[in-house]
Amino acid sequence: MAGINTGRLLLGGLVAAVVIFLIEGAATPFYMSDMLHALQQHNLSMGSGASGMLAGALISLLMGIGLIFFYAAARPRFGAGVKTAMIVATVSFFTGYFAGLIGYQAIGLYPTDMLVRFGVTGLVEMNLAAIAGAWVYRE
């Protein structure tokens, strides 16, 4: 990864992951009962406890590192700063997170209003996480 500061990438990714994890935790009360109800209608359940927290932390870490990797790759083209972090976060949201929401809608797993809440939360958290991680990243 010539040109990318790997140590700062990992540190920025960790910072972004913490932001994602905390926002997800804070937002959960706004949709958890609806989510559990929707899953029960399909005879599905959700992992909880330590395994659920570990999965959430791992997903947050992967998302955080991914955001800051793409931020580091975009810096030479768009410049360092908030604008570039938000471009990366918004593109990452629409090509990853939002695509998953479309899939959930297509198979009818969750109600539309809940998916909208997921989407709004996701877009905000991705942008805040990218800004926080970008603040840490230096080449």
Outline the secondary-structure elements.
Elements: H1 6-27, H2 32-41, H3 49-78, H4 82-107, H5 112-136
Helix pairs in contact: 1-3, 1-5, 3-4, 3-5, 4-5
Count of DSSP strands: 0
Unreliable parts = none
Helix/strand-derived category reads mainly alpha
Question: What Rg is obtained from the alpha carbons, in whole angstroms?
Answer: 16 Å
Quick check: average pLDDT? 94
Shape: elongated
Q: Please give the count of helices.
A: 5
* Overall tally of structural domains: 1
β content, as a range?
A: under 5%
What does this protein structure show overall?
By secondary structure, the protein is mostly helical. It has one domain (6-136). It has 5 helices and no strands. Helix 1 packs antiparallel against helix 5 (112-136), helix 3 (49-78) packs across helix 4 (82-107) and helix 4 (82-107) runs antiparallel to helix 5. The N and C termini lie close together (12 Å). The model has no long low-confidence stretch (mean pLDDT 94).
